[in-house]
Amino acid sequence: MSFDLVIRNANLVDGRIGLDIGCAGGRIAAIDVQLGGGFQEIDAAGQLVAPPFVDPHFHMDATLSLGRPRLNASGTLLEGIELWGELKQVQTAAEIVERALRYCDLAVAQGLLAIRSHVDVCGTLTGVEALLEVHERVKDYLDLQLVAFPQDGLFRSAGAESNLLQALDRGVDVVGGIPHFERTMQEGDASVARLCAIAAERGLMVDLHCDETDDPNSRHVETLARETLRHGLQGRVTGSHLTSMHSMDDYYVSKLIPLMAESRLNVVANPLINILIQGRHDTYPKRRGLTRVAELQATGLTVAFGSDCVMDPWYPLGTADMLDVASMAIHVGHLSSMEAMRRCFEAVTTEGARVMGLDGYGVAVGKRADLVLLQAGDPIEAIRTRAVRLAVIKAGRLVAESAPRESRLHLGARPERVTPRLT
Ligand code: FE2
After folding, report:
1. What is the largest CA-CA distance in the chain?
2. How far is residue 235's CA from residue 324's CA, in Å, rounded to a whole number?
3. CA–CA dist 343, 255 (Å, integer)
4. Which domains does the chain have, with CATH numbers?
5. pTM of whole model > 0.90?
6. Which of 86, 182, 212, 416 is catalytic?
7. Which H or E run includes 352?
């Protein structure tokens, strides 16, 4: 059999080593030892070939806008929303497209080939128009899924529902919301019910910013699970953030998590943003705010990690590196056992793909030939070193490559070269 591309001597995430991966017609055609020749060949040299990184929670309409029109002085979620409201008044669709495309370039270089982005629908549909254009322009190399997101509240913002429905009519894929930002707890719950009903009527997925607060009484996730069951949306609904779970008492959580399991709710935590934004009203001790990752994983729920923001009103840093996201989760969530760290790698790859419902994702025969060669031997080393993406492959085609990281030393008797792998 002849292949369009063969990657030689690869280690896989599941622990198998020294395998060749043959790609043909945009799919993985064979995984075995010593495959036949390919039109193009890449020597993995015993390094890790993983499926691409997936970011199931991002805001591409806001990315790279840091400092416009001003910086977030308090660092809080609420000032970020206020600042974003000011930027929305002045930014054009062309500006959003330009920033988003620059971010997509960086994402591809980082082996990040699937992104679910929320797009604000309150007040204006400029962001929707811009990101639908971006979706079209990047579709050959990046899976961009859009969520219609009423940032200022479905009920709190006049015209939000009508704009949300228009966004869905135009082709936005997923129903979003933000119940903890509605005027009252009751209106928050009512927004969850309305949004799930819209999704059920249209056969769509749901992804709500849910309980992104330190208030243990913010319990919209309970309503989200209930409405998921009511509408038969099991497995198609995602609760993003769920940071209030960090502060809830254990007795309540012991009832909540089984309900979430019954409704097969997907969970997306955003470790970089959660550790930066939560606990801002605390003096000392300051709460971490990350949701209960290990407990949710233990019930068998899909738990993925997102990056949420890069250089925008909420977060001044970021490099589209999902390994950075996984590393933060390990630290904030005390997830440092070997097994827990491996699961953190899955949370930025396969679990995110599950949240997005990606077809043909994974390193197996018949799956899409979307692959990333990392300068690391295994997933834990990849996280530890924020491994360089030596080669990024989309549909069997090389779309990005980077030189390995290596420093030259000038220390006389010591070795002349050192790499982060230390091997
Ligand atoms: Fe978000």
Report:
1. 71
2. 27
3. 24
4. 3-51+362-408 (2.30.40.10), 53-356 (3.20.20.140)
5. yes
6. 212
7. helix 350-356
